[in-house]
């Protein structure tokens, strides 16, 4: 007797297959996405007529694939020059971070030279017009449409023939050919596929706005990120004016660039030099503060670390931080206690950054150590000092990447002295660079008064 064909199950998020049903995907760890895919079949694909003949790669023109600037320098920096005709960009971010505001300004800038179509499925055209009035983003060549059907969207594209298409958002659009509610896995997959085909066939740069889940990942099937050409993540604390744009995926440019923006009452402004947002303007130095230079992508940023050490009456002293990695803060404090004899075991320690910036790279360790030590000693660091370096568990100060770029940025902003790991000293005119081997040497170099025993 012939054996019955085995039924397979497939994950709708990542395509992982298994021979039996499971509640959680073994590849992407998503719950409730494994569905029956039916028995595998082997079919012979008949040849069909080709749309365009294959040609040698040397004969293919690249003129139509060059990036076109959007007019917003910070966005063009992240994209690698601008939007590419036929390219599809997925723009994701948390609610209220300013995605629609930024894209409306981009649409108005691009509409100065060619028609732009902005399709919204979350708001009415009147609501978008009110926001455009507030931002000053008005142009006779900027067309608005409120649609939730991808078929109606194609009709708008036929009528306008835009040079840029913005869809806000892909989770609100639906296709009449697929069952399911808008935002569902099948609907998002079908809508995204239809919009990508439309963009490629007509060479229209397309921006798809995407929602994010509570853990920060892009909502919808993981396949969506694989299909598009560029994935941008718009980040920012709702209590801060700073917004950062990162490229998670970019087929046309680098993925280690970031764009900085400032959210104001009149809109979002690009910040070519955002370092001023992360420093406190004061007349005299204050104990417990230290300035460092962090690298966000390839861009050096000046940031300030603050620490406050106070006596505690609690059995377990309090440790709190904002904008820093909790694990690294605890490690640096343990190294100070054990290797540098800085007594903080029975004290409350509060650490934070200025301006709402998040500092997660190890090069911030040395600045944090000097800030905590300065608060314990109640002694301010000299004016014009920056500290760069990773702190190890043995108390050593380790080298970090991009020291030259960091020092050049510090010198440009008027700093006169830098403490860096040994063998990382780079001669910079107007900047005294001091190399140290361990935390103790860094403390002796930074503070002039003798350390209390």
UniProtKB/TrEMBL annotation:
Answer whether the UniProt record assigns the keyword Transcription regulation to this protein.
no
Give residues annotated as binding ATP: 93-100
Alphabetized GO MF terms: ATP binding; ATP-dependent DNA damage sensor activity; damaged DNA binding; hydrolase activity; zinc ion binding
Location of motif RadA KNRFG motif in this chain is 249-253
Known Gene3D superfamilies for this protein? 3.30.230.10, P-loop containing nucleotide triphosphate hydrolases (3.40.50.300)
The GO cellular component terms are:
cytosol
Q: Where is this region: Lon-protease-like?
A: 348-453
Q: Where is the signal peptide?
A: none
Task: Please list the residue ranges annotated as the RecA family profile domain.
Answer: 64-212
Q: Which domain of life is it from?
A: Bacteria
Q: Which UniProt keywords are given for this protein, alphabetically ordered?
A: ATP-binding, DNA damage, DNA repair, DNA-binding, Hydrolase, Metal-binding, Nucleotide-binding, Stress response, Zinc, Zinc-finger
Q: Note the Pfam families from the entry.
A: AAA_25, ChlI, Zn_ribbon_LapB
GO BP annotation list: recombinational repair
* Family as reported in the entry's similarity comment: Belongs to the RecA family. RadA subfamily.
- Report the protein's function: DNA-dependent ATPase involved in processing of recombination intermediates, plays a role in repairing DNA breaks. Stimulates the branch migration of RecA-mediated strand transfer reactions, allowing the 3' invading strand to extend heteroduplex DNA faster. Binds ssDNA in the presence of ADP but not other nucleotides, has ATPase activity that is stimulated by ssDNA and various branched DNA structures, but inhibited by SSB. Does not have RecA's homology-searching function.
Q: What does the comment on domains in this protein's record state? A: The middle region has homology to RecA with ATPase motifs including the RadA KNRFG motif, while the C-terminus is homologous to Lon protease.
* Record-given protein name: DNA repair protein RadA
Source species of the chain = Streptomonospora alba
Which gene codes for it? Answer: radA
């Amino acid at each position: 007797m012939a054996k019955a064909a085995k039924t397979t199950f497939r994950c709708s998020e990542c395509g992982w297959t298994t021979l039996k049903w499971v509640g959680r995907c073994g590849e992407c760890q998503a719950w409730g996405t494994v569905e029956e895919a039916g028995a595998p079949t082997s079919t012979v694909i008949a040849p069909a007529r080709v749309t365009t003949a294959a040609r040698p790669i040397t004969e293919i023109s690249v003129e139509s694939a060059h990036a076109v600037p959007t007019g917003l320098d910070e966005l063009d920096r992240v994209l690698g020059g601008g939007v590419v005709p036929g390219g599809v960009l997925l723009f994701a971010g948390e609610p209220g971070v300013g995605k629609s505001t930024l894209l409306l300004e981009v649409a108005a800038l691009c509409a100065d030279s060619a028609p732009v179509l902005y399709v919204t499925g979350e708001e009415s055209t009147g609501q978008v017009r009110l926001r455009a009035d507030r931002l000053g983003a008005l142009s006779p060549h900027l067309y608005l449409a409120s649609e939730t059907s991808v078929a109606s969207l194609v009709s708008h594209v036929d009528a306008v023939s835009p040079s840029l298409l913005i869809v806000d958002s892909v989770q609100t659009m639906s296709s009449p050919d697929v069952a399911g509610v808008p935002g569902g896995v099948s609907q998002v997959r079908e809508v995204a596929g239809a919009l990508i085909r439309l963009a490629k066939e007509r060479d229209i740069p397309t921006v798809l706005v995407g929602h994010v889940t509570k853990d920060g990942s892009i909502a919808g099937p993981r396949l969506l990120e694989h299909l598009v050409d560029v994935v941008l993540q718009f980040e920012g604390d709702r209590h801060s004016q700073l917004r950062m744009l990162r490229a998670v995926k970019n087929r046309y440019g680098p993925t280690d660039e970031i764009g900085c923006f400032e959210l104001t009452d009149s809109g979002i402004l690009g910040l070519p030099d955002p370092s001023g947002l992360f420093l406190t303007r004061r007349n005299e130095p204050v104990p417990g503060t230290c300035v460092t230079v962090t690298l966000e992508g390839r861009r050096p940023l000046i940031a300030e670390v603050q620490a406050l050490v106070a006596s505690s009456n609690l059995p377990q002293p309090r440790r709190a931080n904002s904008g820093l990695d909790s694990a690294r803060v605890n490690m640096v404090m343990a190294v100070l206690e054990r290797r540098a004899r800085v007594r903080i075991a029975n004290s409350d320690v509060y650490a934070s950054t200025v301006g709402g910036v998040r500092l997660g790279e190890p090069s911030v360790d040395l600045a944090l150590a000097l800030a905590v030590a300065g608060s314990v000693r109640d002694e301010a660091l000299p004016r014009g000092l920056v500290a760069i370096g990773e702190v190890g568990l043995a108390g050593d100060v380790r080298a970090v990447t991009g020291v030259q770029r960091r020092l050049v940025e510090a010198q440009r902003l008027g700093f006169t002295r830098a403490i860096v790991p040994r063998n990382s000293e780079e001669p910079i005119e107007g900047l005294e660079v001091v190399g140290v081997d361990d935390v103790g040497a860094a403390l002796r170099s930074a503070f002039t008064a003798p350390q209390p025993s």
